Amino acid sequence: MSQPAWLNIGIYEAGIIPIVYQQVKCWRTGGLRFTILGFNYFELVLVTNVAGSGSIKSISVKGTNTGWTQMSRNWGVIWQGMSGLAGQALSFSISSTHRLPERHPSGVDIRPDVSHMAAVRLLRD
């Protein structure tokens, strides 16, 4: 937890204070949203509107003129790529930490919490 957030609920010098929390279901609808920042030589990607627990395990990016490149976690929920993909159409492959349950029934429509593919166009001056 960041220090500014902690200072809203506790005293900085108080030491260890137990915190009880509960994860709740996220009922998001619609597709994933991508916020893309960076410069000509790198990309910073923020993926939002991730349903469920929002636990993204990995992201790969592919430009029009490149193959798939693994992105790394930069800080928190920001993903970083060093591929220099300015001006190219981008495809993203996103893996969630969630998986299909064992012995899932046949013939049932299973809707994962995370969409696995999306495409955006990255334009820079």
UniProtKB/TrEMBL annotation:
Keywords: Cell wall, Cell wall biogenesis/degradation, Secreted. It is a peripheral membrane protein. GO terms for biological process: plant-type cell wall organization. GO terms for cellular component: extracellular region; membrane. It is found in: Secreted, Cell wall; Membrane. It comes from the Eukaryota. Residues 41-107 form the Expansin-like CBD domain. Belongs to the expansin family. Expansin A subfamily. Causes loosening and extension of plant cell walls by disrupting non-covalent bonding between cellulose microfibrils and matrix glucans. No enzymatic activity has been found. This is Expansin. It comes from Lolium multiflorum.
